[in-house]
């Protein structure tokens, strides 16, 4: 369990520890990370760490939740003002890729959570997909998209975003990244416009509402 700070200073200190944990877990992995390395990166004493977190596992779980909260906020803000579902999809994906480029730990920490903290992993995806299902359901009912299963569509779209982000943001897109089908990690970058447009063309085609005059 983590402790909620009672003062503004405590809130800043706790945030500093989480920021340091993001860096340490991302760079070293869970096994090699330690409370000592996290507190050194945060510039605080070990005693201060234990004011807010009980163990390394607890700060890891809190980091997963914190990353989840921030990426959902980024996607919601990115899609704010969109007037159609497809505008919202495009803006949401753009915000997700931008967040990933700035916070590569989103991938590295979440993927480790599969083994370190499966319950945190499930919570991460559940919180994202719940909002996705709701949005797709509303768009389907309004006739903005076709008669798709919102649950299936939500998981498929999340998979698209995760893999495209992994290939072109986390692994990079330059010559050093290797062949198209065999990329090698090369640091963060950005999804090229042509790749993003092609991804959205495929998504639009899969989700678009069918004109009755086109037949089945």
TrEMBL record:
Residues 34-53 bind DNA. InterPro entries: DNA-bd_HTH_TetR-type_CS, Homeodomain-like_sf, HTH-type_TetR-like_transc_reg, HTH_TetR, Tet_transcr_reg_TetR-rel_C_sf. Keywords: DNA-binding, Transcription, Transcription regulation. Residues 11-71 form the HTH tetR-type domain. PROSITE patterns: HTH_TETR_1 (PS01081), HTH_TETR_2 (PS50977). This is TetR/AcrR family transcriptional regulator.
């Amino acid at each position: 369990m983590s402790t909620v700070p009672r003062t503004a200073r405590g809130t800043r200190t706790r945030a500093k520890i989480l920021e340091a944990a993001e860096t340490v877990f991302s760079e070293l992995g869970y096994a090699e990370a330690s409370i000592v390395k996290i507190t050194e990166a945060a510039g605080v004493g070990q005693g201060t760490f234990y004011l807010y977190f009980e163990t390394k596992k607890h700060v890891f779980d809190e980091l997963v939740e914190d990353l989840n909260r921030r990426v959902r906020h980024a996607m919601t803000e990115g899609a704010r003002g969109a007037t159609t579902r497809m505008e919202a999809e495009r803006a949401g994906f753009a915000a997700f890729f931008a967040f990933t480029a700035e916070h590569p730990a989103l991938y590295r920490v979440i993927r480790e959570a599969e083994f370190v903290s499966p319950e945190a992993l499930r919570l991460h995806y559940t919180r994202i997909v719940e909002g996705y299902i709701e949005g797709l359901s509303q768009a389907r009912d309004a006739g903005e998209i076709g008669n798709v299963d919102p649950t299936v569509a939500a998981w498929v779209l999340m998979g698209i975003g995760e893999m495209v982000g992994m290939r072109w943001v986390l692994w990079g897109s330059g010559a050093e990244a290797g062949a198209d089908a065999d990329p090698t990690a090369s640091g963060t970058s950005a999804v090229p416009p042509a790749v993003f447009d092609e991804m959205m063309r495929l998504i639009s085609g899969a989700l678009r509402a069918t004109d009755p005059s086109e037949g089945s």
